[in-house]
Amino acid sequence: MKTSKRMTGVYKQVDRLKAYALNEAAQLLKKVSTVKFDETVELAFALGVDVKKADQMVRGVVTLPHGTGKNVRILVFAGEAQAKEALKAGADFAGFEEYFTKVKEGWVDYDVVVSTPDLMREVGKLGKVLGPKGLMPTPKAGTVTADVKVAVQEIKKGKIEYRIDKQANVAVAIGKLSFDSEKIVENATTVIDAILKSKPVSSKGEYLKGLSIASTMGPGLRLDVKLLTAEKEE
């Protein structure tokens, strides 16, 4: 595949065979960026687990200390009183019948869906719309809760969900390239810690097989896994 002139210039500043220290990689991503919009920074993990086994699924939630840098749009399914609480807490949309109908018709103009437990029987009927986009509320992600106020506040502060895909990879957005490199590192470290702690008990052999960091239009930089894991063991 032909490489654009922009990426050719970027790759001249990058050692594609090197495994970078996290701080060095964060600084390099900022240095080589040539686009005019604020890119998202993402971590990509390759894990040594068997995704065919239910007890080796890696999934959880973590709160980024410096937030995501994104205005997360939250839809809350709740009764009238709780919907008002959710809106006061910062939810973008809250209620039930109106939004149930809109979602059923294919509306997906939101990033996270929260629901009170009593409405999940009905919300479950929206699986064809919410499921493929990973938007179905779940207790594990803290998005099925009676305390919608707290749920909304936590999400707005930077609470995110991570989950493994069918290829045993986990991709997590950890902030924006406009963040100071120190904030990118702190957000990344928080996610790395969470995923390392999520290692299934039944998983044998090497767990963290590979890890890279990239920005939306930037290069993917391999991170030094041995250095990262050694730091965690100290």
* Structural class estimated from helices and strands: alpha/beta
Uncertain parts: none
Compute the separation of the termini in Å.
43 Å
Main sheet: strands, sense, barrel: 4 strands, antiparallel
Q: Which homologous superfamily in CATH is the superfamily of the largest domain? A: Ribosomal protein L1/L10, rRNA-binding domain
Count of extended strands: 9
Question: Percent helix among the residues?
Answer: 25-40%
Q: Which range does the strand content fall in? A: 15-25%
SSE pattern, N- to C-terminal: HHEEEHEHEHHHEEHEEH
Q: Give the strand line-up of the largest sheet.
A: 7-1-8-9
The CATH architecture designation of the largest domain is 2-Layer Sandwich
Average pLDDT, all residues: 91
CATH topology of the largest domain: Ribulose 1,5 Bisphosphate Carboxylase/Oxygenase
**What oligomerization state is this entry in?**
single chain
Overall 3D form? globular
In CATH's first tier, which class of the largest domain applies?
Alpha Beta
Number of helices: 9
Radius of gyration: 19 Å
Number of domains: 2
What key phrases describe this protein's structure?
3-stranded parallel beta sheet; 9 strands; 2 domains; Rossmann fold; Ribulose 1,5 Bisphosphate Carboxylase/Oxygenase; 234 residues; 4-stranded antiparallel beta sheet
Description:
This protein is of the alpha/beta class. The chain has two domains: 13-67 and 160-233, Ribosomal protein L1/L10, rRNA-binding domain (Ribulose 1,5 Bisphosphate Carboxylase/Oxygenase), CATH 3.30.190.20; 74-156, Ribosomal protein L1/L10, domain II (Rossmann fold), CATH 3.40.50.790. Helix content is 34%, strand content 20%. The strands form three sheets. The protein has a four-stranded antiparallel beta sheet, with helices on one face. It has a three-stranded parallel beta sheet with strand order 4-3-5, sandwiched between helices. It has a two-stranded antiparallel sheet with strand order 2-6. A hairpin with a 5-residue loop joins strand 8 (208-215) and strand 9. Helix 2 crosses helix 8 and helix 3 runs parallel beside helix 7. The longest helix has 17 residues, at 181-197.
